[in-house]
């Protein structure tokens, strides 16, 4: 990930105040304002460069609005935003990558979002394993999403395809550890 992409993640997901950027309640920022404030902060990029970052980001972290006037992070916020996503029926299984050192806590308390607003779930074990590698020796957990959904838990699908939920109670880890 380029340093510009990392900086965009920082200001659009965690610290918009870094460049005195105001996000609306759904996490959107006007592109012209973002570019102007980045320039003022010594991080000048052009509109074309911004569009290239969005188009080539391997995790599709950013979304440009349909009218091409605003940008936001697709998910992963540690600041309060309401992405405006509608609840969806999840697939029967989703996966969560984590470090094996966290398993005792997870099997006691379930999966909690930590510093993020919501728990992130992947559609395949390979992606989840890559996520888990960031935290140590990776472990992939399989989530019984249908049982969760039937118990009233809500699932959302972010613009980039990542599934989100507020928490995953330990009893829904019934399929066990994948790796």
TrEMBL record:
Q: Which HAMAP family match?
A: KptA (MF_00299)
The identity of this protein, by name, is: Probable RNA 2'-phosphotransferase
Q: Name one Pfam family in it.
A: PTS_2-RNA
Recorded family membership: Belongs to the KptA/TPT1 family.
Q: What does this protein do?
A: Removes the 2'-phosphate from RNA via an intermediate in which the phosphate is ADP-ribosylated by NAD followed by a presumed transesterification to release the RNA and generate ADP-ribose 1''-2''-cyclic phosphate (APPR>P). May function as an ADP-ribosylase.
Q: Which GO terms describe its molecular function?
A: NAD+ poly-ADP-ribosyltransferase activity; tRNA 2'-phosphotransferase activity
Transferase as UniProt keyword = yes
Q: In the UniProt record, what gene is named as encoding this protein?
A: kptA
Organism of provenance: Sulfitobacter geojensis
- Name the keywords, alphabetized: NAD, Transferase
- Please give a single GO biological process term from the UniProt record: tRNA splicing, via endonucleolytic cleavage and ligation
EC number, UniProt record:
2.7.1.-
Which positions are tagged coiled coil?
A: none
EC main group: transferase
Annotated InterPro entries: Ptrans_KptA/Tpt1 (IPR002745), RNA_2'-PTrans_C (IPR042081), RNA_2'-PTrans_KptA (IPR022928), RNA_2'-PTrans_N (IPR042080)
Q: Which PANTHER family does this chain map to? A: PUTATIVE PHOSPHOTRANSFERASE, TRNA 2'-PHOSPHOTRANSFERASE 1
């Amino acid at each position: 990930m380029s340093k510009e992409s990392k900086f965009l993640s920082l200001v659009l997901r965690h610290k918009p105040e870094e460049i005195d950027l105001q996000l609306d309640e759904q996490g959107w920022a006007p592109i012209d304002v973002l570019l102007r404030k980045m320039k003022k902060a010594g991080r000048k990029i052009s509109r074309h460069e911004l569009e290239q970052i969005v188009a080539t980001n391997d995790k599709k972290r950013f979304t440009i609005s349909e009218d091409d006037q605003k940008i936001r992070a697709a998910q992963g916020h540690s600041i309060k935003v309401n992405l405006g996503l509608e609840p969806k029926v999840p697939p029967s299984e989703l996966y969560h990558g984590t470090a094996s050192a966290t398993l005792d806590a997870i099997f006691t308390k379930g999966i909690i979002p930590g510093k993020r607003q919501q728990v992130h779930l992947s559609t395949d074990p390979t992606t989840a394993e890559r996520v888990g590698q960031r935290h140590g020796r990776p472990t992939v957990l399989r989530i019984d999403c249908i049982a969760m959904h039937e118990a009233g838990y809500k699932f959302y699908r972010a613009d980039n395809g990542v599934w989100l939920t507020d928490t995953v109670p330990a009893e829904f880890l019934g399929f066990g550890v994948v790796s």
